[in-house]
Design goal:
Chain lengths: 447, 322
């Protein structure tokens, strides 16, 4: 009896091992790499885990899904993908800024998706304008993951102190969108708040404290272009000087701190702006809101405190007369080293639905990417999203070009020069243009 | 030549060979390390510096990289801020080295070896803390201490005392770059100097006191001459170390504020080749910065070895040559 039992046990063990090996051989390994600020942006990668079984059932395969998600700095994160690609260890799916297409497509690290996008109806519903920022050399290289707006946050608290009525405050976004209330009005309001002692000198307006996409909308707002019709890099010197005059003038008038560049994001910038009692206007991103609600004003009521004391509006019109913002969609790209690009795309398609993208949009205050999503109840009824979605009609984007980093670093040098008083606007423009010409050579045209 | 003389000569040449092999054998592990971790990397970055390698054409296949001659060096020399970054580097090395890594390290060593042994040990242990603390944590502490009101600890005191508050690091970036790095560098010299002072024979030190010298005179005429070599070693080693160090500066000011106010050469190489907010790092161009840094380091090392006569340091003791 004992012998029979032992035999049965050994047989079972053997059968289960064989079955295990067979299953393991069939399993398709997919690695996804995401950058996300926890917890509000966790759906960027976690959504894949939600749809894993659904895709397995649809394709009749087993997927060995490996999600790698953290909040590394952008520079390190991007280098990691470049090095991993060259080492043959790149993740199958990489989530990054759309501007990386400009570097990774010519390097051959990601694959074009034109021929396969049509196979997934989910992608048909993506807001058409978002595809514009996913192209390079006439092809599409990524699937939008999210969109956002980079607005001006205004302190309702301080505007009330300045004598603004509730009606004035609540109608501000509409007046800005219509081009009635301009950037010059914003600076004048900030100056008035300083003169009346409502805010300290330098706290009338804060922009971001480090290099980043936001700065480009000041240049766009003055009619500047980064790419010409043929897709070559250009710099408009008049728009550049006007941009630097705006920023330098704001420092000279005491509206903007000369040392705002260099402030620590988490130690100073966010905690100060989120309180709504120190800075009148702050240029940020929609995703800042949940971060503030969770990390900086949770003890005061979180979202409710923010709704009561902070509003958001487009960047008021500058020389062009149009209010604008800038969206910087993150995009899922498929590595050229992926052995299963079809499965990777199937997974991306599965999460590109209103249901899944809404979770990310609502939790992290990023704007929707699908038309159906914009009409969905969860999205439409969300107070934050409904207050910002119209901004996509006024949006601009970064260019996808290998020379963009050299262009933007030179542009940022000019901003640093004019804000610290090391050069006037014309001098700052000379510095920026000289830097662009030195590094890009014939690759940049000065207009 | 007699048979005996021939045998003697053969034995002597065998001994000489054995002695050479022994010497090179002992040097071999260090030699391999130098080749693997210095000469080969230098050869690689030298090659990278004459290519246009970037994220947008990245490859690890040396043959596939596009050779562009000296164009990166031309771009570097035409960079309007290269001169500023170069002089920043000299300023940083000179001040950190002279104030902290040598002078203050020597003062701390002398003071802690002239007080109670236990107390001296405690003080030295405190001075070592910056070095054994992770750079990120160490810089975070400095930033927390010096942040503007109402966040910084120092500004909290200013508030309580009714004094104005400051954004200390942005206002005086160089002071903090030098101090923050100096506190780390100081401990290296302190350890070397302390062990050198401790190894001076006690009867020499006592004899000077018996002869009527004060403690200051004993330091000047007995201790300092006897720790000359450790002093020169620390001076040389720390110069080269500071030339290539940038982590603390990156974390503290990232080369700012403004136009490269505290940017040093090694940080520029890092920014160009390895870290860029918008991606597309310029590996080839960054390597050109790194190659010049290697060149400066090698030239300085040779100058130091000549000026400080390091051959005397490694020469056979005279008593052995008698």
């Amino acid at each position: 009896m004992l012998r029979r039992l032992l035999f049965a046990f050994v047989l079972l063990l053997l059968l289960s091992s064989v079955a295990g090996i067979a299953l393991a051989q069939d399993a398709v390994s997919i690695t996804v790499r995401c950058k996300a600020s926890p917890p509000e942006e966790d759906w960027r990668c976690n959504n894949f885990a939600v749809v894993e079984e659904e895709v397995e059932a649809e394709l009749g395969i087993e997927i060995d899904l490996n999600l790698i998600q953290d909040n590394a700095g952008w520079g390190d994160y991007k280098n990691e993908f470049v090095l991993a690609s060259e080492a043959g260890e790149a993740p199958d799916i990489i989530l990054s800024g759309h501007e990386d297409i400009g570097a990774w497509a010519p390097a051959g690290f990601i694959i074009p998706l034109d021929d396969v996008i049509g196979m997934h109806s989910e992608f048909d519903d993506i807001v058409p304008s978002l595809w514009d920022s996913h192209g390079y050399a006439g092809q599409i290289w990524g699937i939008p993951q999210d969109a956002e707006a980079r607005p001006i946050f205004y302190s309702k608290l301080l505007l009330r102190d300045l004598g603004w009525s509730e009606e004035d405050i609540e109608s501000l976004p509409d007046r800005v969108a219509a081009g009635e209330w301009t950037f010059a009005d914003m600076l004048a309001t900030a100056e008035a708040a300083i003169d009346e002692g409502i805010v300290d000198e330098g706290n009338g307006w804060w922009h971001r404290p480090s290099n980043g996409p936001d700065f480009l909308y000041y240049y766009y707002g003055h009619g500047g272009e980064v790419l010409d019709m043929e897709g070559n890099l250009v710099v408009d010197s008049e728009a550049l000087v006007a941009t630097y005059e705006l920023l330098g003038g704001a420092v000279a008038s005491g509206v903007l701190r000369s040392d705002v560049i260099g402030l620590d994001w988490n130690e100073v910038w966010h905690p100060t702006v989120a309180q709504a009692d120190t800075v009148l206007f702050a240029a940020g991103g929609t995703w800042n809101w949940p971060n503030w609600a969770i990390n900086y004003v949770a003890d005061k009521g979180g979202d409710e405190f923010l709704f009561e004391n902070i509003g958001l509006t487009l960047i008021p019109a500058m020389a062009t007369g149009n209010a604008i913002t800038l969206t910087h969609p993150l995009t899922y790209m498929i590595s050229s080293g992926s052995e299963n690009p079809d499965v990777a795309l199937e997974l991306i398609a599965a999460i590109t639905t209103p249901e899944h993208n809404n979770k990310h949009a609502i939790d992290s205050f990023h704007l929707g990417i699908l038309n159906a999503q914009l009409q969905s109840e969860a999205y439409a009824n969300n107070r934050l999203l409904s207050s910002a979605h119209y901004m996509l009609d006024h949006t601009t984007a970064l260019p996808n070009h290998p020379g963009w980093n050299a262009w933007s670093n030179a542009y940022f040098l000019g901003i640093q020069a004019v804000e610290t008083g090391e050069a006037d606007a014309a001098g700052a423009a000379e510095i920026a243009i000289a830097q662009m010409q030195n590094e890009l050579g014939d690759g940049i045209a000065v207009r | 030549m007699s048979q005996q003389a021939e045998k003697r000569e053969a034995r002597s040449s065998r001994n000489a060979l054995r002695s050479y092999l022994g010497a090179y054998g002992f040097m071999a592990p260090a030699g391999v390390l130098v080749v693997v971790f210095f000469l080969i990397p230098v050869a690689i970055i030298l090659y990278l510096s004459v290519t246009n390698l970037a994220s947008s054409n990245f490859t690890s296949n040396l043959a596939a990289m596009e050779y562009i001659g000296l164009r990166n060096y031309e771009t570097l020399l035409n960079d309007q801020f290269a001169r500023k970054i170069f002089f920043n580097t000299i300023f940083y090395v000179l001040f950190t080295l002279s104030i902290f890594n040598v002078s203050l390290a020597l003062i701390v060593s002398l003071l802690t070896t002239h007080i109670d042994r236990g107390a001296g040990f405690v003080f030295r242990a405190l001075w070592i803390l910056p070095r054994i603390t992770s750079p990120v944590v160490y810089i975070l502490i400095w930033k927390r201490m010096m942040a503007e009101a109402p966040f910084g600890i120092l500004n909290q005191f200013n508030n309580w005392l009714g004094m104005p508050t400051y954004n200390y690091i942005a206002t005086n970036p160089w002071v903090f770059v030098v101090v923050v790095n100096g506190f780390i560098g100081l401990s290296f010299g302190m350890i070397i100097f302390t062990s050198a002072i401790e190894s001076i024979p006690k009867d020499l030190l006592n004899a000077s006191l018996v002869d009527g010298s004060s403690k200051l005179q004993r330091i000047r005429y007995v201790i300092l001459p006897l720790i000359r070599w450790p002093l020169l070693f620390v001076f040389t080693y720390q110069t080269l170390s500071l030339l290539t160090s940038f982590v603390e500066i990156q974390l503290l000011t990232d080369g700012g504020p403004g136009l490269y106010r505290t940017e040093v050469w090694s940080l520029t190489a890092y920014h160009r080749a390895l870290s860029n907010y918008f991606g597309n790092a310029q590996w080839g161009y960054g390597s050109a910065f790194a190659v010049l840094l290697v060149l400066i380091g090698v030239v300085l090392a040779v100058i130091y070895m000549r000026v400080f006569r390091f051959d005397e340091l490694v020469a056979e003791p005279r008593v052995e040559t008698l």
